[in-house]
Predict the structure.
Amino acid sequence: MAATHPLLEPYEPSAHDPFDRVKAAHLLNRAGFGGTPEEIEKVLRLGPSAAVDWLLDFPDQSAEEQDKQDVPDLSSIADLPKSFRDLRQMYAGKTRQERMAINQRVMGQNREAMVATWGWWLQRMARGPHPMQEKLAFFWHGHFTTSYRDERMALLMWEQNELIRRQVAGNFGAFVHAISRDPAMLDYLNNTQNRRGHPNENYAREVMELFTLGIGNYTEADVKEAARAFTGWTHDGDRYLFNAFQHDAGAKTVLGKTGNFNGDDVLDLLLAQPACPKFIASKLFAYFVYPDPQEELIEGLGQLFRDVRLELRPLLRTVFTSKAFYSDKAIGVQIKSPVQFVIGTIRQLGVDMPPFRALFGPLQMMGQVPMMPPNVKGWPGGRTWINASTLFARCNTAMRLASEPLTLHGLPDGANDPGVLVDALVDPLIQRPIDSDKRQVLVDAASSHEGRHDRIQYVVQLIVSMPEYQLC
């Protein structure tokens, strides 16, 4: 597949521009949540192209499909079974009234079930078998947003998360059709209230503005007509349900086309618009490479995505192997999101994952709790992550994690020398060279401590508090 813009051509290492540890760490930071020294060495051995193939080599399956045991553990929560899978079975064969009674019984435990779900997902980000699948799941969670603040059923939040995990690198069209039937999404954007004669426009608006086309590529009339097409789309428990009695089967005009459209027909119309592949491809690029890509590059991305019929894996492979991805404009300039910051710190320090209750407050202060985006637009990211209060929370969180027993490996034999120690710690933590004056501050700090353990811990705490550590 030929590149459609020079910056989308494959990066080819050379003597002038080698594939080094900085670039290997950059790939693992953007395609996952940061690399350990062992993973960086593996990526170096593979090279840029094969490393992306390795990262993209995950099954298009939910976590539960990959491993029946990899599910949130609900066993310690009163009135709940061991897992959401078992909770689903409680509803099997029950009448609607019986299911409602079960709901009333378990609603009081939903907060505890969400705590288990949050902890499970963060653990999977940090230690799961497929880091790129989890990073993509987190990206799409911020694109197809749903918040626990509004969707109070932990079961539905977990099932949406699993749906996203299955779809992260598949066909975008199939993804849109699937998420549009998702019970948590139908609740969050009020489509359960969308009835014939009284259409609710929320989902029709957001599926155009945020999920497929972007502002300026549809009209208010399109939204009103599309809302009629989604009437009757609802759910019964964790199952999608089409209520034909509540569906408006009349003729509708959407994006210049007229017919007795249903919701699927409208989604197909949206996916066929030239604006759709350009909008989605540019959003992926801005998240994983750098913001505000050049207009010609956006056009090239859109053309490429059209050419592969909205298949995500070829698009992702092109982005992660491109010259743009390894350019100076991309490396070490992205402000870490709070989740990236916390999970990356845990991975790089080799510390155990703290209980989610210990992370909830810090993540909330930093501005990002998974499954609780601020609104349907998700997290704005970028410079919005950094202000006086969030920076204070970042430093405190990193310092607390660095005070845990560290399992940093590979420190050289000469690490008792302050300079050698500083270089050996900057490499796995910041993963890029730092200014000589800042290095000297760290060397002086290391010299001020006698014991090896205290010296290492003190220098690590200083490093994770540096401005450079906020970037990847």
The two ends are 30 Å apart (CA to CA).
